[in-house]
Design a protein that fits this description.
Chain lengths: 116, 113
């Protein structure tokens, strides 16, 4: 089956630090990757859609200068939380899909980000 | 805009019994796809089952099956012979071709021994 690797799984850092999260599709080429944020006991909130070789499309209310997304290859997308603050603490999940209309999303295991 | 509604924030079922989780959606599209995802306490998102809207036959995957009613825009998930490992958050999701996924708010399922 399709495997998506997300790293790191948990990061704790000081306020003002920038944090990079990687999302890799291990056994398929992902034309599109998604980045979600999930608050406790809530559903997934789409932050941005990332297509290989082009700029990410951000959802309304998501600061693109705060959450930098790079999709440099068909197997790797990165999310960088710049100058992180405690309010950025959350669970971040990436997903990837193959080309094709009915393809499901394959999710990474998520990253728990804690900003002190 | 498409929306997905899960009217049951929490459900519980006795082990070995059957439970049905509800999902309704709103769309003007005729061609789309529906999914159920499971999120256990580990928080990993796991695909449970999917359905193409053009298919009249309901999808089944072992103990999991759906009741897809296109006219009613309803997509319920039935779990038969419930097991302790089925305890999780369940998210219903919708996607039309080339568009983003839209997730419902989720239903927390507890399985009682």
């Amino acid at each position: 089956g399709a495997v998506v690797s997300q790293h790191p799984s948990w990061v704790i850092c000081k306020s003002g630090t920038s944090v990079k999260i990687e999302c890799r599709s291990l056994d398929f080429q992902a034309t599109t990757m998604f980045w979600y944020r999930q608050f406790p006991k809530q559903s997934l909130m789409l932050m941005a859609t990332s297509n290989e070789g082009s700029k990410a499309t951000y959802e309304q209310g998501v600061e693109k200068d705060k959450f930098l997304i790079n999709h440099a290859s068909l197997t790797l997308s990165t999310l960088t939380v710049t100058s992180a603050h405690p309010e950025d603490s959350s669970f971040y999940i990436c997903s990837a899909i193959r080309t094709g209309g009915n393809q499901p999303q394959h999710f990474g295991d998520g990253t728990r980000l804690s900003i002190l | 805009a498409q929306t997905v509604t899960q009217s049951q924030p929490e459900m519980s079922v006795q082990e070995a019994e059957t439970v049905t989780l509800s999902c309704t959606y709103d769309t003007s599209e005729s061609d789309y796809y529906l999914f159920w995802y499971k999120q256990p306490p580990s928080r990993q998102m796991i695909l449970v089952i999917r359905q193409e809207a053009y298919k009249q036959q309901n999808a089944t995957e072992n103990r999991f099956s759906v009741n897809f009613q296109k006219a009613a825009k309803s997509f319920s998930l039935k779990i038969s012979d419930s097991q302790l490992g089925d305890a999780a958050m369940y998210f219903c999701a919708y996607r039309s071709y080339g568009q983003n996924f839209v997730f419902g708010p989720g239903t927390r399922l507890s399985v009682l021994p």
